[in-house]
Amino acid sequence: NAGVTQTPKFRVLKTGQSMTLLCAQDMNHEYMYWYRQDPGMGLRLIHYSVGEGTTAKGEVPDGYNVSRLKKQNFLLGLESAAPSQTSVYFCASSTGRAESGELFFGEGSRLTVL
Amino acid sequence: GQNIDQPTEMTATEGAIVQINCTYQTSGFNGLFWYQQHAGEAPTFLSYNVLDGLEEKGRFSSFLSRSKGYSYLLLKELQMKDSASYLCAVMDSNYQLIWGAGTKLIIKP
Fold first, then answer.
1. Can you give the pLDDT at residue B94?
2. Does chain A have fewer CB atoms within 10 Å around its N or its C terminus?
């Protein structure tokens, strides 16, 4: 089972460049999430989606955009990358809330902005 | 504000028992999760507690006291492969997960 797949795994950008991270899940999950993980900090939610065609802002949405055109895919875009966006990005999916809300994570995408 | 506290790092010996504590202050409570994350890898689900008490799963157990805003993860018969970070996360009243910074557990032979 593929589970949650993220591409690319690694990327180096220059300040001001744009890029898109792709997340795909094959578990038919309704909920999808984009997190960033920085040293010494907990996972922080960037944006999330509770179903195809819907997106919502998380804790740290500034500088990022997302789209959920298909249920299985959740894209994270950086329009103008900044050094502060250097981080490890994790995509996750789940069936829904709380007791069924176990998150399944992708392997992560390590982004460096110079 | 919402806050999850857990120790930054702990060291234990192979074969021993270790308890990793997590205290939280959140806007509402809809459950507490523990995840394991090996270095350079994705977090993986370990346990979920929503009622007070102890949940046991093999060598791992998780305890919750909602009145004290407190949980712990207990790992028994430690193995070298248990060296990882352990993340505590609380689901608040809006069903958003609030994550702690994680506890890095180092296992020594």
1. 82
2. N
